[in-house]
Design goal:
Helices cover about 15% and strands about 40% of the residues. The chain is an alpha/beta fold. The protein folds into 2 domains: about 10-110, no CATH class; about 120-160, no CATH class. About 20% of the residues are buried.
Length: about 160
């Protein structure tokens, strides 16, 4: 896990040889090294070990996936796919970490409103961009060959480019 090191208090463990058929829920954190055939609803963190298999959806604050899941993951805070992870389903989370060797086939929704968080451009940068664009146009017009410069351009004549920009 990236950032601050926080200890997770695991309250439930499903061992390597265990199999759970049906939906599973827990009020704490869970580590799964066995098989769960059903949906998982956990109040805190789900850790799916490298030998763990889930055939169903996972709902938890944080999901750390090292095994195989065929189903969707809804982890509002963070989802991490380790190098041994194999996820066939959609992920909804705020933060996602995917190891380069993980397998993920599905879509990811990161719960962020893109339109409202776009920064406004710096006015100095916009002015500098306009100046450099005008200089590039002037140079291109001079290179086209009639030697008269900007007045002979159809863009200037049509009013699409003003000489004051």
């Amino acid at each position: 896990m990236i950032g601050k090191k926080s200890e997770i208090m695991i309250t439930t463990i499903i061992g390597k040889d265990a199999e759970c058929n049906g939906d599973f829920s827990s009020g704490g954190s869970v580590r799964i090294d066995g098989t769960v055939n059903g949906n998982i609803n956990v109040a805190d963190t789900v850790i799916l070990g490298a030998t763990g298999v889930v055939n169903g959806d996972i709902e938890a604050k944080v999901a750390v996936i090292g095994g195989e899941i065929i189903g969707s993951i809804n982890a509002p805070e963070k989802t991490e796919l380790t190098s041994t992870a194999r996820v066939l389903g959609d992920i909804t989370t705020k933060t996602i970490i995917i190891d380069e060797n993980a397998i993920f086939q599905g879509s990811c929704n990161m719960n962020q409103d893109v339109s409202s968080k776009r920064p406004k451009p710096n006015s100095k940068a916009v002015k500098a961009g306009k100046k450099s664009a005008k200089a590039a146009i002037d140079e291109a017009l001079r290179a086209t060959g009639d030697g008269s410069g900007e007045d002979s351009s159809p863009l200037y004549e049509s009013g699409q480019i003003s000489q004051n920009e």
